[in-house]
RNA sequence: GGUCCGUUAGUGUAGCGGUUAUCACGCUUCCCUUUCACGGAAGAGAUCAUGGGUUCGAUUCCCAUACGGACUACCA
């Protein structure tokens, strides 16, 4: 097994969680770094949890981020189909093979019987209350029932599952690329159901069979799978198949460290947990995505890549290509990672500034359009406004939201700034400045505007800081923003005078 | 409860037996600005979870404890 083949195997039960995106990314980076293949396999063996649109959502989200599969349900490939529901017919023969080898068995226990067993074991304070090497002797299965009765039950279409016959005393040992050797005693493991009564395999069986058939070389997945990895290892041994290498990634945790990153905590702390907007068709709710919240794909990739991995040097900014060049599983950490959206914002700020001005101008124009503003804005003007706004933007929307006053006179004035800066003194200055502009300003261009404003302030004997905020307030309604003279140049003489007039009426 | 995994500043991290314990985000202060931001400079912030070993010497190796997390379904 010398070619690297990895897979991302999501279950279409809802919107793709950002932790899942990171798992997909790490798989993708690992594949590309090693000139291998990255595939997507949809694990939809649970019909009851299937959510329409979820698969499409997952693909769209990964496409947006540039995590493109070499083989997938949409793209096909030499091991198609890539949806487990479509592979259903092939699993049963493998399960039966294990039954024949006495490595698995039929179990006819009803949900009620199972429940009774559980209660009984709990009352007996069993250390491991499960269907296992010890308890299976008391249950209704092909190990305890006479052979002809088993045949009869099967012939009568009595519902059954197939369970893995986990040895009572053995040790399962495997090497995890991130965690090192992991040892587990089979006594602590249970007889996992591998075929459900509806004829579908469970995750454990389908996953192992498909990974084998699809020639997967490395299984890179979240740490939540670590406890069941021994079962999977045992399954490979049962089939006599060569095992892929395992790498269990540390989990993304809530900012307070309380549990796996959750939708609920995301809402509580105010950050998205899904890559794209997700419309939950069942709950009829909308969960905001990183994209719609204004995060650029470069930021999401860069941010996610560094959550649990680093290149070993102190580089923070990575393009996808650089990540591919530097990624290695050896440098993935072991501990869970608390999610900190601040860092994502910083990345966003960085990548936003890297965007070409034309693209930024598009953000501005699109945003203004939603406000029915800026219809006469030229590309040139849009670009120069963006250049001016660039340094203080974190999200694309900031370009128009923080520049609204360039297109619309302020309707209200920031209260705090008013009480601080609006007084007799500044009012008098504003009055004289108004007169000055009205009569003297020949060229309406920011250099000369600035020059004249400065000389006027000097002549008045006042301090810049005393009067400038008032002018700004009059023009923009807020206490902070880009260069005043630039603002004046953009909105023009007529509008400037109008806004000063409005202010003077206050 | 059981099994497994983890633990370096608020957060993400470097470290791989001897360091003033690295870098980034965030925070504070100063400079630059009319202001905000950017940029520049400086700073605060870590008993390297705790206790035992091993060693001349442990953040680094071993053990225990504490704390945290994952799993514990005919879900993945």
Structure description:
With 506 residues, this protein is mainly alpha-helical. 44% of the residues lie in helices and 10% in strands. The protein contains 19 helices and 13 strands. It has helices spanning 18-33, 54-65, 88-100, 111-123, 147-155, 203-213, 229-239, 263-269, 297-305, 320-326, 341-354, 357-370, 379-389, 398-401, 415-421, 424-440, 446-460, 464-476, 484-504; strands spanning 5-8, 37-40, 104-107, 161-164, 171-176, 180-185, 193-195, 218-222, 245-249, 252-253, 278-280, 285-287, 337-338. The strands form 6 sheets. Strands 3-4-7 form a 3-stranded antiparallel β-sheet. The chain is elongated. The termini are far apart. It binds one RNA strand of 76 nucleotides through helix 4, strand 6, helix 6, strand 13 and helix 11.
Question: Can you lay out the helices and strands and say which pair or pack?
Answer:
Layout: E1 5-8, H1 18-33, E2 37-40, H2 54-65, H3 88-100, E3 104-107, H4 111-123, H5 147-155, E4 161-164, E5 171-176, E6 180-185, E7 193-195, H6 203-213, E8 218-222, H7 229-239, E9 245-249, E10 252-253, H8 263-269, E11 278-280, E12 285-287, H9 297-305, H10 320-326, E13 337-338, H11 341-354, H12 357-370, H13 379-389, H14 398-401, H15 415-421, H16 424-440, H17 446-460, H18 464-476, H19 484-504
Helix pairs in contact: 1-10, 6-7, 9-11, 12-13, 16-18, 16-19, 17-19, 18-19
This protein binds one RNA strand of 76 nucleotides through α4, β6, α6, β13 and α11.
């Amino acid at each position: 097994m010398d070619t690297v083949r990895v897979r991302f195997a999501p279950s279409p039960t809802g919107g793709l969680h950002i932790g899942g995106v990171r798992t997909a990314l790490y798989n993708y980076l690992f594949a590309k770094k090693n000139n291998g293949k990255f595939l997507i396999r949809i694990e939809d063996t649970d019909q009851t949890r299937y959510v329409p649109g979820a698969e499409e959502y997952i693909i769209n989200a990964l496409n947006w981020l540039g995590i493109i599969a070499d083989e997938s349900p949409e793209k096909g490939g030499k091991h198609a189909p890539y949806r487990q529901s479509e592979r259903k017919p092939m699993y049963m023969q493998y399960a039966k093979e294990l039954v024949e080898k006495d490595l698995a068995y039929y179990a006819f226990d009803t949900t009620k019987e199972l429940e009774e067993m559980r209660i009984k074991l709990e009352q007996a304070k069993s250390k491991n209350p499960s269907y296992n090497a010890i308890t299976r002797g008391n249950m209704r299965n092909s190990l305890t029932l006479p052979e002809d009765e088993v045949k009869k039950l099967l012939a009568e279409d009595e519902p059954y599952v197939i369970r893995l016959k986990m040895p009572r005393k053995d040790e399962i040992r495997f090497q995890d690329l991130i965690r090192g050797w992991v040892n587990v005693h089979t006594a602590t493991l249970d007889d996992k159901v591998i075929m459900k009564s509806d004829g579908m395999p469970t995750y454990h069986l389908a996953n192992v069979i498909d990974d084998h058939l699809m020639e997967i070389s490395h299984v890179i997945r979240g740490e939540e799978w670590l406890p069941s990895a021994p079962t999977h290892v045992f399954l490979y041994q049962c089939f006599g198949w060569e095992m892929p290498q395992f790498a269990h990634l540390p989990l993304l945790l809530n900012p307070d460290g309380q549990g796996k990153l959750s939708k609920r905590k995301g809402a509580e702390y105010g950050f998205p947990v899904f890559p794209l907007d997700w419309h939950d068709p069942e709950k009829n709710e909308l969960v905001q995505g990183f994209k719609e919240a204004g995060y650029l794909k470069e930021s999401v990739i860069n941010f996610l890549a560094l959550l649990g991995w680093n290149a070993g040097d102190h580089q923070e900014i990575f393009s996808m290509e650089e990540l591919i060049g530097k990624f290695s599983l050896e440098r993935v950490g072991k501990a869970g990672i608390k999610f900190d959206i601040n860092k994502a914002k910083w990345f966003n700020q960085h990548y936003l500034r890297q965007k070409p001005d034309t693209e930024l101008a598009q953000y501005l124009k699109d945003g203004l359009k939603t406000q029915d503003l800026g219809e006469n804005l030229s590309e040139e003007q849009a670009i120069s406004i963006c250049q001016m706004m660039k340094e203080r933007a974190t999200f694309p929307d900031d370009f128009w939201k923080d520049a609204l006053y360039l297109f619309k006179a302020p309707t209200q004035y920031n209260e705090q700034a008013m009480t601080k800066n609006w007084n007799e003194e500044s009012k008098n200055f504003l009055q004289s400045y108004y007169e000055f502009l009205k009569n003297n300003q020949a060229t309406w261009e920011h250099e000369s505007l600035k020059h004249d404003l400065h000389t006027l302030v000097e002549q008045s004997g006042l301090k810049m800081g005393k009067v400038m905020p008032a002018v700004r307030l009059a023009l923009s309604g807020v206490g902070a923003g880009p260069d005043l003279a630039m603002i004046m140049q953009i909105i023009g003489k007529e509008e400037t005078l109008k806004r000063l007039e409005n202010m003077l009426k206050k």
